[in-house]
Specification:
- There is one protein chain.
- By secondary structure, the protein is an alpha+beta fold.
- The strands form two sheets. The protein has a four-stranded antiparallel sheet.
- The termini are far apart.
- The chain has two domains: about 1-70, SH3 type barrels (Roll); about 75-108.
- It is built from two helices and seven strands; from the N terminus they run ββαβββββα.
């Protein structure tokens, strides 16, 4: 599983497609001119962008290497582990406080 933003994808190509679609349609400055960004190809190792000058002229094609991150979003299993750890911690604290209260009552 691979991640882009707050979502996980099964393949690198799907993650790179999500990244590329976030860039497509933007206008950016390149070589002193404004260019419209379009995506022309996506695979698991790279995204190919075409930068079309808004004032007309020859487009620039850029192939940008991409390495999507492994998915590191929390799953239900992670939430259950964290929740049970917190509950266990509270139970330990309750047990210690109960023992301290019992000791104080016996000293009186």
């Amino acid at each position: 599983m691979y991640q882009f933003g707050g979502q996980c994808f099964k393949t690198k190509t799907q993650a790179n497609t999500a990244r590329a679609s976030a860039e497509s349609g933007k206008v950016l400055e390149h070589a002193g001119q404004a260019h419209l960004v379009t995506v022309t190809a996506v695979d698991e190792t790279a995204v190919t962008y075409t930068l079309q000058p808004l004032s007309g002229g020859v487009p620039t094609i850029i192939q940008a290497p991409q390495q999507p991150l492994d998915c590191q979003l929390l799953t239900a299993e992670d939430g259950a582990l964290i929740g049970s750890s917190i509950a266990a911690g509270w139970l330990v604290i309750y047990g210690i406080l109960s023992l301290l209260n019992a000791r104080v009552e016996n000293d009186a």
